[in-house]
Design goal:
heterodimer; A: 193 residues; mainly alpha; 10 helices; elongated; B: 139 residues; 5 helices; 68% helix
């Protein structure tokens, strides 16, 4: 997934080759869709937003100057598209209140998570990430999954690097706390054993 | 000790997020996007970059400007435009009555007050910016 490759397909698309655009869509659809889910917390909405994102990208492809990576440019469009969508729907999402007091114990969390089977573990982890605020879960995904640098995330979200660092620091703690609350019965059980 | 704990948490979260991985959109996602694009490109041609002023227009403009300039410098044109009329300008600088601007002087207090006002406006900008940053962290 090099930038040069992206560039080749962008050029091809601009010359009217829609199959080239298909490659780009396939390459980035999962990330765009995931970002939309992280923000809207809803699969149907996310699907619509992701499609709109790629339509917007297509329409303004000629204005992409290549100053940033193509991927970050696409993510930015997806990020703002999702936030706009939320604003339009005026939906207030329920997210966990910010709490960075340390109630969790990392080693017991780790051992409990290891004990439950993979499918259930995935469900728990997904639910925990979705409980973060829309911005925080996006930032966490971009940083830990896509492994973008703080600078690149700043480009996508428009937040300053300082703000991002604070948010990441807080999200880590919050995520561990959320997991602790979700897994509390299992953790207690493991103590009793 | 604290750093170590932070590092462990960082590694834990990283592993967790990577395990969750990405969500997959529906199987005909790409097909849907492309059919939407086909609809769009049928109604409007793909918007490739076309400059507002074309190359030939620039040449014509350049030629026009150059010829006007040469005409102005080397040509001998008589004009009698009311503002540039030399007679009028001479009259303007001679007569004191036309350019009789009032002579305003400020006391020191006023000058200091204006400077202080300017200074505090900058302080305000700084404080507001900080405040907004804080809000961005929270919401």
């Amino acid at each position: 997934m090099t930038q040069e490759e992206d560039h080749y397909y962008i050029e091809e698309t601009l010359h009217g080759n829609n199959h080239a655009y298909e490659v780009l869509v396939d390459r980035y659809k999962s990330m765009v869709f995931t970002l939309a889910i992280r923000i809207t917390k809803n699969r149907e909405d996310a699907e619509e937003i992701a499609q709109d994102t790629f339509l917007k990208v297509f329409k303004s492809l000629a204005t992409f100057k290549g100053e940033s990576k193509f991927s970050t440019w696409v993510y930015k469009i997806a990020y703002y598209g999702s936030l706009d969508y939320l604003k339009k729907k005026k939906r207030q999402l329920e997210t966990e209140a910010v709490d960075i007091s340390e109630v969790y114990n990392l080693s017991s969390l780790e051992s409990v998570l290891e004990d439950i089977d993979r499918k259930e573990r995935l469900a728990v982890l997904k639910e925990a990430i979705q409980k973060l605020s829309e911005k925080d879960s996006t930032i966490v995904t971009l940083f830990y999954f896509e492994e973008l640098s703080i600078k690149e995330i700043a480009m996508v979200t428009g937040l300053t690097p300082e703000v991002l660092k604070v948010r990441l620091f807080r999200s880590r703690k919050q995520l561990a706390n959320i997991l602790h609350h979700m897994l509390e019965p299992e953790i207690v059980e493991s103590y009793e054993r | 000790m604290k750093d170590d704990k932070e590092k462990k948490l960082d590694a834990f979260i990283k592993q967790l997020v990577q395990e969750v991985a990405l969500e997959e959109p529906s199987t005909d996602f790409t097909k849907n996007v492309l059919s939407k694009i086909d609809e769009v490109s049928q109604t409007t041609q793909i918007t490739s970059y076309t400059p507002l002023i074309s190359r030939t227009a620039w040449y014509v403009l350049a030629l026009g400007t150059i010829s006007l300039l040469t005409l102005a410098v080397f040509g001998n044109i008589e004009f009698d435009f009311f503002l540039i009329n030399s007679n009028f300008l001479a009259k303007l600088s001679d007569s004191g009555s036309l350019l009789n601007l009032p002579n305003i002087s400020f006391s020191n207090v006023v000058v200091y007050a204006a400077l202080a006002l300017g200074f505090f406006v900058y302080v305000q900008i700084y404080l507001l910016k900080k405040n907004w940053m804080q809000k961005e962290v929270l919401y």
